[in-house]
Amino acid sequence: MKDKVLKILKENKEYISGEKISNILDVSRTAVWKNINSLKDEGYEIDSISRKGYKLVSSPDILKYEEIAPYLKTENIGKNILYFDTIDSTNKKAKEIAETSPDGTVVISEEQTAGRGRLGRNWSSPKGSSLLISILLKPEIDPSKVSNITLVGAVALVKTLEDFEVKGLIKWPNDIIINDKKIAGILTELSAEINQVNYLVMGIGVNLYTNTEEFPEDIRHKAGSIFSETGKKINRKEFTGKFLNYFEKYYNFFLGNNYKEIVKISKEKSILIGKEVRIISREDTYEAKVLDVTDQGHLLIEKKDGGIEEIYSGEVSVRGKNGYV
């Protein structure tokens, strides 16, 4: 009901009476009044004048569907958005609702209390300063093809940054870098059987407004935000809508086995190609040189003994030889 009242207020640029809203929604004027007050509690500035009604003056910087919708051009991704003020983990919630929610459902929260990155690392995200989002996907593909899907999210992020005249680079396969600082990370989780995918959850965390001093001291040397690295405080709602637009575009390429454009962009935006890196796996740690990103989205490396090897997403953690990148 509250979202319906908000939609009516957004569609009417002038004052609209409580009676008219109650007639449209077939509810009492008291119900309208209660929902108006609830919206005010969320930060919406709503002017009310006797005999004229209500008028929306301004909206808060939150990522509800109604706020993102003006920028959203997708056919499927993000048409169903679950919004939270605070949550333990958007990925965890997406997995909890996976069986009963449609493909393309998005979970967004202003704050995570137990956000995770790859290999169980924590994700730092001060409330209201980030994009914390998980996308539920149900692709009809063989589980063996899932490993390179993380690059879809990475490419969508760097293309979104381009729209705001920000140059982001991809630290294969799941980190976005600006000025050698990680400003975004991707965590993809899979539920599958031997020959079919039940669902995928891709969690994305983007530090948008965070100041350097807001990061824990132990990660300040490698963590940043778009604002801390560029001085730009971009519109979160627009950024979210554009990211989902790009994500759907490249996800459809992925589903159609048209991976060429995704790989092309991931090569152009790679921060690792040509660099000496340290490969850290569960079994071993060794140094190598990054040669390329393969047509399948894998990392092609040359080991010290001259051996050429493909590294698959999810198998390793890549660190720059002398630091984070």
Provide a concise account of the structure shown.
It contains nine helices and 14 strands. With 325 residues, the protein is α+β, with helices and mostly antiparallel strands.
Please characterize this protein's 3D structure:
The structure is a single chain. The protein is an alpha+beta fold and 325 residues long. It folds into 3 domains: 2-58, Winged helix-like DNA-binding domain superfamily/Winged helix DNA-binding domain (Arc Repressor Mutant, subunit A, Orthogonal Bundle), CATH 1.10.10.10; 65-268, BirA Bifunctional Protein, domain 2, CATH 3.30.930; 276-320, SH3 type barrels (Roll), CATH 2.30.30. It contains 9 helices and 14 strands. The protein is elongated.
Descriptive tags:
alpha+beta; seven-stranded mixed sheet; SH3 type barrels; five-stranded antiparallel sheet; 325 residues; 28% helix; 3 domains; single chain; BirA Bifunctional Protein, domain 2; Arc Repressor Mutant, subunit A
